[in-house]
Specification:
Elements: E1 11-13, E2 19-25, H1 30-40, E3 46-53, H2 59-66, E4 71-73, H3 82-95, E5 100-103, H4 112-117, E6 122-126, H5 138-145, E7 149-156, E8 166-173, H6 180-203, E9 207-210, E10 213-216
Helix pairs in contact: 1-6
The structure holds 5-O-phosphono-beta-D-ribofuranosylamine.
């Protein structure tokens, strides 16, 4: 028995395998790029089977096409509701045998049904040290609050937005003359490190979740 487990506690262990990943994005796609670069370099044992967007003109989608990846855009407006939309995403994932869904600047809230169906199989990155500053415009919120440090967090996605179990975090100082943009740029450098690292650990079978806590296995 694992010495860190408590009796009766649900334990999830990420699979050790060659992973099939689906990326969901809405914008620039710099995290997608960092992750794909790490896959191409052989650092992450996984492929991206589909890059998906809710925005037809997302620069990240164009970048994925340039890189020869399969891409898809679905217009949320033609679906009856959010659940129907997410069901279509789940269908797209199922036909491709997707192991992990990576939210990389995906500006849409994932429905609880999607979270439940893909429990421990959806990850996100957030540009603050959660649970501080969930939501949007969080670099400005960190400056306005006066915190001395901010950073970024990778986490599992659960029905409560930005509140799933934390996987990795990185910290940066908040400087007195920071603007939203300068702080965001400093944080982004760290995002591009911890997001690929998170996915690498995932498919090395080294992420274990017990309750709210994530343990990185050696
Ligand atoms: C990043 O700051 C990420 O933390 C947040 O959305 C932004 C996406 O940037 N979730 P990019 O599209 O990956 O460049």
């Amino acid at each position: 028995m694992n010495e860190l487990a408590h009796p009766g506690e649900a334990v999830f262990r990420s699979p050790r395998k060659h992973g099939r990943v689906m990326v969901l994005l809405s914008g620039r796609g710099s995290n997608f790029k960092a992750i794909h670069d790490a896959m191409r370099a052989g650092t992450i044992d996984a492929d991206i089977a589909l890059v998906f967007s809710n925005k037809a003109d997302a620069p990240g989608l164009a970048l994925a096409r340039e890189r020869g990846l399969e891409t898809a855009f679905l217009d949320p407006k033609i679906y009856a509701d959010k659940l129907e939309y997410d069901r279509e995403i789940m269908r797209q994932a199922a036909v491709r045998g997707i192991d992990l869904i990576v939210l990389a600047g995906y500006m849409k809230i994932v429905t609880p049904e999607f979270c439940e169906a893909y429990k421990h199989r959806i990850v996100n990155i957030h540009p603050a040290l959660l649970p501080s500053f969930p939501g949007l415009h969080v670099q400005q919120k960190a400056i306005d609050w006066g915190v001395r440090f901010s950073g970024c967090t990778t986490h599992f996605v659960s029905a409560e937005v930005d509140m799933g179990a934390i996987i990795l975090q990185a910290c940066v100082p908040v400087l007195q003359d920071d603007t939203e943009d300068t702080l965001a740029a400093r944080i982004l450098v760290e995002e591009h490190k911890i997001y690929p690292e998170t996915i690498r650990l995932y498919f090395e079978g080294r992420i274990e979740v017990r309750g709210r806590r994530v343990f990185i296995l050696s």
